[in-house]
Design brief:
alpha/beta, Rossmann fold, single chain
């Protein structure tokens, strides 16, 4: 298994597999992808790096698979604060339970740990870290996550 890219800072971008996203979208009906590139946006409305999503207002039901680098804490904080303002933000995150951002923000959401190691789009091997879905619910949206991911094949 070639894990060179997994253990380097070559990239902090981990593309969401379309089948996984589609299953979640069936329930959540996402309106905004807050961390996208034009070639991998999951919603017709999205923020790309040139939009600087951290300075934008997040509204509706948002999908967030943030860059997994040193700035991830800023993204999770923004997701949490956006939910307080009324948005619902569904996040695909590395399950880094030993970090400050996890304790300060992720723990305040609904958490579902994904079984095994997630296989991100564009990578032939599974990630070397565990992943979780964290949902920050804005308004009165009911908790629906467990039924969404139980039938999705996450690992190889």
């Amino acid at each position: 298994m070639d894990t060179t890219v997994h253990f380097s800072s070559e990239t902090d971008l981990w593309a969401t597999p379309q089948a996984f996203f589609a299953r979640l979208d069936e329930c959540w009906h996402f309106t905004l992808d807050v961390c996208a590139l034009p070639e991998n946006a999951k919603c017709s409305r999205y923020f790309s790096p040139t939009d600087d999503a951290l300075k934008q207002r997040w509204e509706g039901t948002c999908w967030m698979n943030p860059p997994y680098g040193r700035e991830i804490g800023r993204w999770v904080k923004k997701a949490y604060e956006s939910a307080i303002a009324g948005a619902t933000v569904v996040c695909l995150l590395p399950a880094r339970t030993d970090t400050a951002w996890w304790h300060d923000y992720a723990k305040k959401g609904e958490i579902e740990f994904l079984r095994g190691r997630f296989k991100f789009g564009g990578h032939s091997n599974s990630a070397p870290f565990p992943s979780a879905i964290v949902v920050f619910v804005g308004g009165a949206v009911a908790w629906r996550l467990k039924t969404q991911i139980q039938d999705v094949e996450l690992c190889v």
